[in-house]
Amino acid sequence: MSAYERHAGAPGQVKEVTSLANPLVKDIKALALKKFRDQQNAFMAEGLKLVIDALDLGWSIRTLVFAKAGRGNTAVEKIAARTVAAGGTVLEVSEKVLVAITRRDNPQMVVGVFSQKFLPLKDIRARDGDVWVALDRVRDPGNLGTVIRTVDAVGARGVILVGETTDPFSVETVRATMGSIFAVPVAKASPEAFLAWRTSFPGLVAGTHLKGAVDYRSVDFSKGPVLLMMGNEQQGLPDELAASCDKLLRIPQAGRADSLNLAVATGVMLFEIRRGALKLGPEDARS
Ligand SMILES: C[S@@+](CC[C@H](N)C(=O)[O-])C[C@H]1O[C@@H](n2cnc3c(N)ncnc32)[C@H](O)[C@@H]1O
After folding, report:
1. Which residues line ligand 1 (CB under 6 A)?
2. 44 lies in some domain
3. Which of 36, 111, 161, 268 could share a disulfide with 65, CB 3.0–4.6 Å?
């Protein structure tokens, strides 16, 4: 019995796959499409560190896929064992299969398939110091992933997706989060459900708007929780969402650009809102 088999349990629990026609491989490849992600209620994340972080944070892994080259790698063997212990399947695959699954020429050695998880809106109970970000109809997966990553970086609490949005569990969004998809709770709501929930939000609801009259640097964000509302990339916040904000803030600009990119504007706002909470320290030396 190899070291790998000792970690992973019974040898039969590790399937070696070299054929693209294998049904398990077909199911994983299908996760590139939203229709199949929704059908399977699953999504894919690439990279050993991401998969370890996801397991540490309690995400439920369905399938672990690793390249043959990962055999003998202690870290890979450990997550294979954790996958088996969690009732998941472990696939050892050829380079060709991994390239097909990830659609990348130089794929990561490890891919995990996880169950999707949304936080129910009704479970969000904001307390003092909490910052939540509501994104109105965000379209671009890169923007959504970058916002989720930034929310994580500043220690905000989570993201609420309002209306029809890009999928937080698409491969592109998950890649752009750089692993923060596993650390940041994501809720989704129709505009009506969001507006109903917003009425009981116990702190400042700050919208950002190109017509906002208030300089974002003039606001005291230190009291109570904050809900930051960001508008759609093309249209900005619609009237009914803008009207539900306590303040509409603007980031002053110079030059000819009409507006900032959504993720950049969210980053500027989040670092201002969290300014008092962020200090350089030993834990800040994380790379
Ligand atoms: C690309 S902008 C939207 C531009 C859109 N054409 C509009 O009229 O609002 C996306 C979002 O980023 C935020 N944003 C971008 N630049 C901003 C600025 N200078 N001040 C305040 N918010 C800004 C707003 O929430 C905006 O809805």
Report:
1. 208-210, 212, 230-231, 233-234, 236-237, 250-251, 253, 259-260, 262, 265
2. yes
3. 111
